Amino acid sequence: MTFSSFEMLPSRQRAASAAWAGAVVIALAAAAAIGKEPAGDSPRLVESLNAGWRFVKGDREGAALPAFDDREWEHVDLPHTWNAQDGQDGGNDYYRGPGWYRRTLHVPRALRGRRVFLRFGAANTVADVYVNGAHVGQHRGGFSAFCFDVTSRIQFGGDNSLAVRADNSHFDDVPPWSADFTFFGGIYRDVQLIVTGPVCISPLDYASPGVYLRPEQVSARRADAEVAARISNALDRPQEVIVAALVRDHLGQVVAESQKAAALEGRAETSVAQRVSIAAPHLWNGRRDPYLYSVNVELRAGDKVLDAVRQPLGLRWFHVDADKGLSLNGRHLDLHGVSRHQDRPDRGWAVGRTEHEQDIALINQLGCTGVRLAHYQQDDYVYSLCDRTGLIVWAEIPLVNRIVDSPTFSANCRQQLIELIRQNYNHPSVFFWGIHNEITAPWEPGPDPTALVKELAALAKAEDPSRLTVCAATDPVDHPANWQTDLVAFNRYFGWYNGMPDEFGAWADRVHREHPGRPLGVSEYGAGASIRDHEYPPEKPRHDGDFHPEEWQAYLHERHWLAIRRRPYLWCSFVWNMFDFASDGRSEGDAPGRNDKGLVTYDRHTRKDAFYWYEANWSDEPLVYITGRRYVTHARRQANVRVYSNCPTVELYVNDRFWGAGAVSQRHVINWSDVPLQPGINRLRVRAQGPAGAVEDGCEWNVQAAESD
Known about the structure:
By secondary structure, the protein is mostly beta strands. It has eight helices and 40 strands. Helix 2 runs parallel beside helix 3 and helix 7 runs parallel beside helix 8 (609-618).
């Protein structure tokens, strides 16, 4: 069976659903200061409200009121979390409760008559927002953006009090009910003030920008795309407007345009959809060529532009075959990559663009073709980086481990799924909507999730028929909840939680044989590793023990990738995880409160041996790397030198003397056995010839004792 990106619903149904589909976070330049027109072609103003907040942990009576005295509170800038320290140190005792944020905002009198919105990138878990003491809205969910119209509460020409109560307590109606990561509290993403005219492209449709782009018929000869906009009129009287769509190439040249008239009733909203066509389109082609157009949607009245929103447009088509895997634009693409958590040491989830850029750069260095952004909606900027670099994205909601059998829990799952889709609809990098992760696990029993999963999968298709639904499944394999989505992938930890690494291949073949016609992938596999723990040859350690040798992680990944690449029917494979991350309830490895399955350490400073294994297999950049480099103290006078490389031959030098050269195997490994070492410090160096010149690597090993014989 083949699952394609544009064949899931009849065309009439696709067109009807697209009119209400959402998109990504606003991608316009911020105004330098409120009251000044921003650069670009939009009359709307966007200002960052990240600076100048006061914060206190815990509840404070009257904290929403303008006259409340917050002078003793801590000064903070956003993004911010109150769990930066206690959420990463182990013990499962980090603070989960309320915290308050307050700041003052001056709004110039000149903006009277315009509309004012507050937009939050995310706040965990439940957030209540107050303006001048009035409650303007509540958002339940810790990972998606939310936006409120606060125009009626703003004092134009004066100071305004903003107050936010965030609470990361456990809420039975808000997933995730439980998960293997720390739930950092606070306003941990950006906050923006958005100012528009009374007639605007609405930012209130689940905090999407109100512009929704969906490529329909795409080929090398022609591409048709639907452009839908959600238009809002805050005036009492009707308005007639023109909605114009201009498609520009990377040089800014208009390559297609369209416009459509719309009549707006007073105090009403409507959706306006139209189509644009591009001849001989330049396709978005993953990492080979992540080409982006831009679409500027303008709301006009006569010659005046009332509002404008710009969004990225990537033109591509794809399908997934149960036997051949993923194809992009008619060519097979080996979808392999990593999963990513967003937190950093001493910062938790309160990270910004610099950290996101570093993470995506490391993922691209590894040679990934895709990334699973787990287990929750991540910052819009991350999806934008994936658009620009060509990483294919699996995006998902935080329905993790188990469900709660209640109408309110199901309603919040639906809300978070709609938010994920509408806020990220325009990102061409997003191919898959993830519905759940391990919610059939026997180690955390709960109500049967099948009915809810089926409902969410259908909702995702109604919201966005152009993409495929997926789940990250676990035992029991044949549980019906694992087979409600278009695609299925499994979390498998052979050689860590159970069994041995070489058991993976037989397991995958059996599931593929028992479920013919259903695309099968691997959503997680991996092992913990400490860069301080070493053993050669490695033996399988206790997963819950203190000793997690780096060499076992590398061995496990070697065996798994060799099995995966021999099975073209696996439509995806994602390593768990790219980076170590905080899980305050864990006590294992060399650091409490840490899940150490990352290929890179939590601080991003050290790439473990397994990182270079994948770089040798996945990257086209010439590489030569000596494994076991941190196993610096040896008791034997003869050692094994194992090297990862994607070059044809590698030369080995020991203490500046040439030892030998050898051909790198098709497995991207070369191994020298019984290499003699001298007592004390030994310098090892390897050299290989790449297309642009030589590449080298080196390390030092210390022999402290000779062999007894």
